[in-house]
Amino acid sequence: MTPLVRVLTLVVLGSALVACDRAPVDAPSPSPTAPSPSASPGDLAVPPLQLPSVAPDGTCPVAEPQRWSNPGQAQRVLGPGPVYPIADYFTGGALPLRPSDRQVDGSYTAKVRWLAADYTGPVLVRAGRIDAPGAASAQFSYLGEPRHDGHHAVLTRPETDLPGTTTVDGPGCYAYQVDGTSFSYTIVFRAD
Q1: DSSP-assigned beta bridge partners for residue 116
Q2: pLDDT mean across residues, the chain
Q3: Whole-number Cα distances in Å, 47 to 119, 167, 177, 189
């Protein structure tokens, strides 16, 4: 092998090695919005609980029910969504407190079903009394866990039926705060 062939062979081999260390020009770059490998689908930046106040005259500013698009699931819902308590459980605009709903500690636990529409991801539902000192909570019956002073669940289907309960201290004005990855809103209701 002549010295010129040796030099050319080394140049070609050296170029091939350098080319192997470089990414191809048309290789896609990592997406800046892709979640990190350690991120969990249940991760949610939890905003502070910010429930509204009652009106200066003491009126409870209850949410207006709105018609639901699928009457087979519910007639009416409360709130802007995408996760809604079904308004049909709120008789005359109020969550009825029956003697059979009374718990040993004096609180009331009533059935309230929720629906999620066009949303997948984490949701946190918290509740509180807004007209006087007191407590409230909400939970889904078959999905999620207590977390961040509320009930946290990860919705994996865009349309989800969520049987649940709401617990209140007694008659009064209350509010839910519903938080997800792209929303945070409150829904005011009475309990009578």
Answers
A1: 83, 160
A2: 83
A3: 19, 22, 10, 21
Q: Which two tokens stand for residue 77?
A: 């819902």
What is residue 157's DSSP assignment?
A: S
**pLDDT, tens digit, for every residue of 96-130?**
999 999 999 999 999 999 999 999 999 999 999 99
Tell me if 141 sits within 8 A of 70, measured CB to CB: no
Residue type, 32: P
CA distance 107 to 191: 12
* 66-191 under CATH 1.25.40, yes or no: no
DSSP string, 62-84: PPPPEE-S-TTT-SEE-SSSSEE
d(CA 158, CA 151): 19
Q: Where are the domains of the chain?
A: 66-191
**C-alpha–C-alpha distance, residues 11 and 174, integer Å:** 78
